Amino acid sequence: MVDSLKKPEFQEIRPGVKSPAKDTILTPRFYTTDFDEMAAMDISVNEDELLAILEEFRADYNRHHFVRSDVFDKSWDSISGETRQMFVEFLERSCTAEFSGFLLYKELGRRLKGKNPVLAECFELMSRDEARHAGFLNKAMSDFNLQLDLGFLTKSKDYTFFKPKFIFYATYLSEKIGYWRYITIFRHLESHPENEIYPIFRFFENWCQDENRHGDFFSALMKAQPEILNDWKAKLWCRFFLLSVFATMYLNDLQRSGFYASLGLNARDYDIEVIEKTNETAGRVFPVTLNVNHPSFFKRLDVAAAANDKLAKVSASNQPKPVQLLQKLPHIATIGWQLVQLYFLKPIDTIAVRGQVR
Ligand SMILES: [Fe+2]
Ligand SMILES: [Fe+2]
């Protein structure tokens, strides 16, 4: 009994290889897109900025960064019980998200080669970075005697198709939110070193610069296609993606507040900071951002997070599936209703704000 409390049981597909977490609406996804449309894309209106970013990718500042130094050479059995479980889940989710980027960028690099050389090389070099990130996280999982079989994941997971412009909105945001997530944890632990219970976080400072550059690449790419940023449809879609990305993170993180607590962070405060920063960053390229300072914004997300907690409790119960579904419906409706109201909250017109600053 005590032992099972100390070392949580994970389902394995082979000894030491963790079976991937079940797909839900909140788990990291794998993407595919229309490669021909992407290859035919004319980037000439913003080619200079894209070439400058390509030079940065070629410089490969983090070439020597992802090296497992001797700080990892010890037993991590001190991280036990629920904390260990949450740790492994955090590493798995992060690894899956990084690997998702790797797969998409790698495929884009391959398919665009010879057709759109600047974009092809940018994607190829970003896939290099994501492979390092995913590999480093997977290696960290092995400190907890588990690993992910990334080849198995490649074949077994479903791929979501997005047209290129939706890939741009979604990946731009996921890179920028990734940057803010990593740097916020890094800065917190820098000022509270007593909470650094595992050394991977000290790699986050240089690591997040990769994510920042990837985000800048997508920003430059969207600016090369101004039509996806300046009409009424762009405004509606940008609001949609901002809200989806923020709400997904908020519901996920509040459900795992114990993980953040183990680092001395309050999950809610952490998420609010990351959302505010990402929203502000997105305002440099998106025509609109969300009014996250509106008094109802985080209140509504809290109502959705509470309903999400109830959903998780129903899923964990031993009730038959049809009964579970009936019990889930009101909570799903609550989440849906909060999100609809958040979607229709008057957004911030960033073009007007940028105009004023000038
Ligand atoms: Fe990454
Ligand atoms: Fe990235």
TrEMBL record:
Q: Which domain of life is it from?
A: Bacteria
Top EC group:
oxidoreductase
Q: What is its EC number?
A: 1.14.13.81
Keyword tags: Chlorophyll biosynthesis, Iron, Metal-binding, NADP, Oxidoreductase, Photosynthesis
Q: In which pathway does it act?
A: Porphyrin-containing compound metabolism; chlorophyll biosynthesis (light-independent)
- Cofactor(s) this protein cannot do without: Fe cation
Query: Which reaction is recorded as catalysed by this protein?
Result: Mg-protoporphyrin IX 13-monomethyl ester + 3 NADPH + 3 O2 + 2 H(+) = 3,8-divinyl protochlorophyllide a + 3 NADP(+) + 5 H2O
| InterPro entries reported in the protein's UniProt record | AcsF (IPR008434), Ferritin-like_SF (IPR009078), Rr_diiron-bd_dom (IPR003251)
Question: What residues does the Rubrerythrin diiron-binding domain cover?
Answer: 89-222
Q: What does this protein do?
A: Catalyzes the formation of the isocyclic ring in chlorophyll biosynthesis. Mediates the cyclase reaction, which results in the formation of divinylprotochlorophyllide (Pchlide) characteristic of all chlorophylls from magnesium-protoporphyrin IX 13-monomethyl ester (MgPMME).
NCBIfam families named in the record: AcsF (TIGR02029), PRK13654.1 (NF010172)
Q: What is this protein called?
A: Magnesium-protoporphyrin IX monomethyl ester [oxidative] cyclase
Q: Which gene encodes it?
A: acsF
